[in-house]
Amino acid sequence: MGTFVKALRRLLPRRQKRFWRYVSPQRHGAGALVLALLLLLFYGYWYLTNDRRIRREAQKYLSDLTGAKVKIDSARFSLFGGIRLGGVKVFVPGEDPQHPFFRAGSVLLRHRPWGLLTTGKVQPTDILCDDTAVRIAIDTRDEAGSTGRLLVESRRRGFTGAELEANLPLIRVRNCRLDIAYVGPDAREVELNLDIALVPDPAGKYVIRYEEPRARQGGAIRGEVLVDLQTGQFSYEGQWALRPGLLPEKYDQWLKRYRVAGTVRLPKQPATTVAGRGIVAELVDFALRLPPAEGGLELTGVNGQIEFQEGKVILRRIAGKIPQAGDAQFTMSGEYAGYKPDSPFLISLSVTDMELPRAENASGAMAEALTRLHKDYQPRGKVNFEGQFARLSDGSQRFRGAVRPAGMTVTYRHFPYRLENLTGEIAFSSDGTLRPDLSATRGDTKLRIRGEMPFSYGGPSDLTVEVVNGRFDDDLRDALPKEYRDTWDLVNPTGRANVHVRVVKKDADSPEQATVTLVLDGRAGCRYADFPYPVENVSGEIRITDRTVDFESVRGGRGTMKCRLDGQIVDAGLATQDTRLRIRAWKLPFDKALAGALGKEGRAAFESLHATGQADYLDARVTYTEEKGTDYAVNVTLAEADDVRLKMDALPLALSGVAGELTVDPQRVIVKRLTARRGETPLTLSGLVDGLGGETMGLDLSVRATGLAVDDELRAALPAPVRREWDTFSPGGTADVDLTLRYNLPRADDLDYTLTVNAHDMQVRYRDFPYTFRHLRGRMIASPGQLRLEDLHAAEGKMRAVLDGTVRTDDETETARLRVRADNVPIDAELLGALPEELAPLVQRIRAGGTCSLDLKELEVVRPVGAAATQPAETQPATDTAPATAPRPGGAWSLDGSVAFREAVIDFGLGAETLTGVVKGVGGRTAKGVSLDAHVAIDRLQVGKREITDLTGTLLKHPSGSLIVLKDLSAGAHGGKVTGRAEFRLTDPLEYGLSLTVASADLGELFNAGVTDPKKRADVKGALDGTLQLKGTAGKSATRQAVGVLRISRGKLYKLPILLGFLHVMYLSVPGDSAFTDGFISYHLRDDVLMFREIHLTGSALSIVGSGSMDMKTEKLRLNFLTGPPGKMPRLDQIADEFLTGLAREIVEIRVTGTLSKPQTRTVSLRGFDEAIRRLLSPPPPEP
């Protein structure tokens, strides 16, 4: 129920509440009064603090404070933040209104707010100015400035005593640009950047404190100025950063003269000047630059005291650093009698640990002195310096002092040799003279320089340089005067020695004269330019005076070599130089150093010897004049114990153990009977080599040797004409050699020689018949245009040969006439390769094996000289199937003689054939080609086990053709006779043809050829007659074509012989087991198919007729036979159906298949004679 009532109430309308509070009339009136008071208060506050009134009150306050006219662009009041003024300007009365005394972009007046609200006046407690510019105008006539006048004006307006302390505010000026303007006769302005604070003083003065940032140290320079508000004068103290124009003109001129910059401490100065005393400035780490008349050096880090008095400046204990001199420490004192640039002065200067500044960093007398010092000494390092400099009233200058090196490195102009650790002094004075007295070292070399020399060039001088333990190097060479460098370059000393040098110049018109003495004590070496052989451990003395060099018993060595030098060089380095030297050496090695010492021509002479080892003694005389140039003569003595080896270009044989004498000069080498060895072969050599270094080299040599190796090196040692004859036979092996050679003497291209070779164990290979004859003994003599072979005997195994003849050469042709006799010469690839190239197709069918004998009564070869090879002819290499052949010669040849063969092997593709016999006749080659005309007598020609004997014929070849014909062929063959003809066409490959007739050959011998065992002999007999026509290409069986007819009579045989060449026979099995007594076989061969057109055999038990074919490659057979009673079967061309019908019951058809070695025979049914006859008349080809 209660819940229902609550829900009903929520649905019923309700009474709304009031939104404002009830206020009584009394309270409403009190509120209105309070509102009026607040509005009045707000108005009063606004009135007192609005920007216009505040600007006016601030402007009035500042005007009253400064006594100057003040303008303010804007003002803004803040109860607690102060009064912010903008665009404040203060103008000093009586000064240019265009230049306000004070200008600030922003001024903050911190004040007493209640004072403003109660009195209506601005009462600042302190003033803060930003972005400020202050211009102080100073009248140089009374030294009163804008600041003083301002303060005096403020005093005039009523600020006195306690009022100052009570009313003057604290003023702070941040980032103030202070412009100091001097007005009057020397008007100028200077600008400073300062932070300034003005603090009131109860004594009626303002204390102005300032601070300027110091850029170098990052700090500030501080000081204060005490301004008397009563008089406007001021005094000052503190540290100042000097600025041009900051001081009065008479002081500022002096500062400008020295370009003073830095910090100056000013002791407290009185407000008025004390008579007789000027401004005293204490320099604190400041920089200045001396005037040109005083040296023009820059000084930094300077400390000391300067007093500016009327008419003079006094310097007291000025000390600092000189950057141009390596921050050297200096002290200076003195006095300037005035402020003008030409005022007299007297300055004393002392510098320690100074690096001499460059002249361009100084001026005046100091620059002149520095110029001379740098030019004459090129100093590096520290020096101490003392000097006095003065300018007199007449303007003249005086100076004196000394430079004392402290371990410097210098290079003296008159002796530009870099010196280290230099000590001593160089005194100078205004009389224009330098007086050095110096000691120095260079490594372990010690030097001393003494003498006098002028400031300026051209005056008299006298200097002495003593070098102890000096090193001969490029620096020392460059230190010498030019004429002595020329002498140095002639001698090229190295190592160490003592040197004395004196340079004298008598007067301005006289040249400098120097005398150099080299005192050598075994630690030096030298190399004379015109004979630049390096010599070490030199002792003695070399004097150089006025371009004259004297060598007196100068001794030295190099390794085990010892030498001595004597002589003189006059006018060294000039065109008139005259050299006379003698050089003697013992145990002188032949090396690159000696080659380099001999000059261009001499080096060519020496290098042409390719000498190693050492000379036992050498005596060389070297001269030089402008007219003749360099000349020398070198006598060399060689000893066998010194292992001297030579390989002269003129005769490039490697010689060892050389002993004897040589003389070498720029043009020739004279050989005075040298003994030497080539390998283990002793030889002697004498003569000369002339024209070295020129275009043509002449020879006159004699060489004798026993058991000398005849090889390519010996060949290369011979002149080209001799090599050409040498190459005709390409000799090798060992021999006794005697050579006399004269070449290009007395005229170019003259040649005379004799080369005698007594063969011991040599080999030769004639170029046009390149077969090597070995183990040769005999003699070969070569001379211009002729080579003679005298009784040369060769032997190798069972082979023996003898060669005789001559080879003559003129400008156009080379003609060889030789005789060759040889027995038991193996037929091998080398021999076959020596045969003429035109016979190559035939020669390639000859196989290695067997021997031959030659008897060439005359062999003549004529060729153009240009066709003669300069090297032995190369042969085409042999292969397993083809022998090598010689290249085609360049000329004609002819021969007359015989060649006998034993067991020679030839193969035309039907099988190897071995023959023994003789070919005798003539042959040759002309421009048309090769010709042959010879009689052939073959004792035996064997094919397998069968042989032909007593074969004769005539072998012919026409020069213009390629056909070789063996005609009138006749031979015996197994009891019968073979006649006919053979042809060979020299093509590649070889083509051949045969036409043979065989008569009455014994079949028993044919079948049993080579069978010696009676038990193995076949029971065969009878006679064989027939003909064979055969042609083909060697090595290509498919090209064979043959037609043959064979007849057998009075026989007893079981197989048929088939003839396919010179006794190339195959045996064909036929049906039946009984023997046949007569037969006829007709066949032909083409494309590797052997067709049997007719086989007709008759025996005591059987007769057969048949035909067929055989594949020559596979030997497969396909034969058909008809067999019948003995003597009943007709020939194939007589067979008829009617005839066979009468024998029908006795005829059998047999077919033979299989292969030649395994025939298969079978009997087939005879169904009809027509078909059987057709098969016989048209035999089918063999089965594939």
Textual characterization of the structure:
- With 1184 residues, the chain is mainly beta.
- Among the domains are: 194 residues, no CATH class; 162 residues, no CATH class; 95 residues, no CATH class.
- It has 19 helices and 59 strands.
- The strands form two sheets. It has a 57-stranded mixed beta sheet that branches. Strands 52-53 form a two-stranded antiparallel sheet.
- A hairpin with a 5-residue loop joins strand 56 and strand 57.
- It is elongated.
- The two termini are 135 Å apart.
Using the CA coordinates, give the radius of gyration.
Answer: 68 Å
Question: What is the typical, i.e. mean, pLDDT?
Answer: 80
The number of strands is 59
Q: Summarize the main sheet.
A: 57 strands, mixed
Per the principal axes of the C-alpha atoms, what is the gross shape? elongated
Low-confidence stretches: 158-165, 272-277, 868-888
What is the rounded distance between the termini? 135 Å
Helix content: 10-25%
Number of helices: 19
Would you tell me the structural class of the helices and strands?
mainly beta
Strand content: over 45%
Top keywords for this entry?
1184 residues, 19 helices, single chain, 57-stranded mixed beta sheet, elongated, mainly beta, 59 strands, two-stranded antiparallel ribbon
Compile the SSE list and pairings.
Layout: H1 2-11, H2 25-49, H3 51-66, E1 69-78, E2 82-91, E3 102-111, H4 113-119, E4 124-139, H5 146-156, H6 162-167, E5 170-183, E6 188-201, E7 205-214, E8 219-228, E9 234-241, H7 249-258, E10 261-266, E11 279-289, E12 298-309, E13 312-322, E14 328-336, E15 345-354, H8 364-377, E16 383-391, E17 397-405, E18 408-412, E19 415-429, E20 433-442, E21 445-454, E22 461-472, H9 474-479, H10 482-491, E23 494-505, E24 513-528, E25 531-545, E26 548-558, E27 561-570, E28 578-589, H11 592-597, H12 599-607, E29 614-625, E30 629-638, E31 656-664, E32 668-678, E33 681-690, E34 698-710, H13 712-716, H14 720-729, E35 732-743, E36 751-766, E37 769-783, E38 786-796, E39 799-809, E40 813-826, H15 829-833, H16 840-843, E41 846-847, E42 851-864, E43 892-907, E44 912-925, E45 930-943, E46 946-957, E47 963-973, E48 976-985, E49 991-1002, H17 1003-1007, E50 1021-1033, E51 1036-1052, E52 1055-1059, E53 1065-1069, E54 1076-1086, E55 1089-1099, E56 1103-1111, E57 1117-1124, H18 1137-1141, E58 1148-1154, E59 1159-1164, H19 1169-1177
